[in-house]
Design a protein that fits this description.
Shape: globular
Radius of gyration: 14 Å
CATH topology: HIT family, subunit A
CATH class: Alpha Beta
Mean pLDDT: 93
Order of helices and strands: HEEEHEEEE
CATH superfamily: HIT-like
CATH architecture: 2-Layer Sandwich
Length: 115
Amino acid sequence: MSDTIFGKIISGDIPSEFIYEDEHCIAINDISPQAPVHVLVIPKRGIARLADAQPDDQVLLGHLLLAAGNVARQLGVDNAFRLVINNGEGAGQTVFHLHLHILAGGTLTEGRMAG
């Protein structure tokens, strides 16, 4: 997975400021934010899409959800945030390294962020 932009960020080949890091994942600001707070939680182990995850990825997937909650608390948006995973090009996935979007800071309405 080091051939994706996220793999290169994780390896240090592309510099990026980590908002959060632990042994399993990192969190960075999205370069094209769709909300006032738009952070990506990215596993260090590459899985192209959520649909490609295997049973032995279960612990990592659960860890990503807990990390997203930690990041939301750290950013002070834990009372109202949306967590999104795009799976495949037709769903808007542009980088084929699984990642979670934390969207917050506006009024959440069904299907989009307002304000």
